[in-house]
Every structure is written in C-alpha cells, then in structure tokens.
From TrEMBL:
InterPro entries: DUF4442 (IPR027961), HotDog_dom_sf (IPR029069). This is DUF4442 domain-containing protein. It comes from the Bacteria. It holds the Pfam family DUF4442. SUPFAM superfamilies: Thioesterase/thiol ester dehydrase-isomerase (SSF54637).
Length: 150
C-alpha cells in the first residue's frame, strides 16, 4: 500500500513505533477532530491497575499529531510538523480503555498564512482523555510548529 492510499492512522502506526507498541486505535481523523483510543492492556498498567501516565501522555500526543497531519498534510512538502512543548493534567483515575480527542486551537488558514509569510507558526492542540463512562481523566495541550524546510 502506498503512502497515498494509507489513512493517517495507518501511516502513523507504520512510521511511529510507539503507536504500534501501545496498539493505539485511530477512530476518527479529520482536520477538525482526531480521536485515538488506548485499549486496556495489562502490560501498560500502573500500580493501581489503570493505564500508565506515560501511555496516556503518548495517547494524547499521538491524537494531537493525528489532527496536525489531517489539517496540515498539504504543507508537508514545505514544512515539518514538530511538537514544541506539552502539558498534561491527570484529573481522575483512568481505568480500562481510554480515548483521546484532539482539536486545533487556531484556524488552519491563519497558521498557513504565517507559513506563507516565511514565519514558523506555532499553534496549540487541545486534548481530552476520557474513560469508557465519559469522565474526563486527563487534559492535555501540545503546542506544535510547522518548521519550514530548507
């Protein structure tokens, strides 16, 4: 299967070893929203039997990268998306499978306009991590940039 035929989730699973390691599931991928799930897997539990904080961080960061690729995929020939910084807050005990939902914090057109102007735009991606009962177990922000090639 060529890169053009792969979904963003398939591409990430093929190129990002950590996404494969955690068996992340890509449920929804649009420029407006990305939803990625971390199945309940004992080998990634913490000391209280829920998903390890590092696995939840990876889930959230992966969801943020998924929406970045969906929103800015057309820019990949001239810029590389890079995470600049991230912050996570663990709100409630997460048990079982968890799902991360990512949304962009700036309009795509504004970010692309900065890139067009020769700048290196930064933009936040907000992520909510929820357990199966819908409770928010974590909130995360990843700030991304599009680094121009060359």
């Amino acid at each position: 299967m060529s890169a053009e035929q792969m979904s963003i989730g398939e591409m990430l699973a093929a190129t990002v070893p950590m996404a494969r390691t955690l068996n992340l599931q890509f449920l929804e991928t649009t420029p407006d929203r990305a939803v990625v799930a971390l199945p309940d897997q004992g080998e990634y539990h913490n000391h209280v039997g829920g998903p390890h904080a590092g696995a939840m961080f990876t889930l959230g960061e992966t969801a943020s990268g998924t929406i970045v690729l969906a929103a800015f995929g057309e820019q990949l020939a001239r810029a590389v998306p890079l995470a600049v910084r991230a912050e996570i807050a663990y709100r409630k005990l997460a048990m079982g499978a968890v799902t991360a939902t990512a949304t962009l914090g700036r309009p795509v057109a504004d970010v692309v306009a900065e890139l067009d102007a020769g700048e290196r735009p930064e933009f936040p991606v907000s992520i909510e991590i929820r357990r199966a009962d819908g409770a928010v177990t974590g909130e995360m922000t990843v700030v991304w940039t599009l680094r121009p090639n060359g």
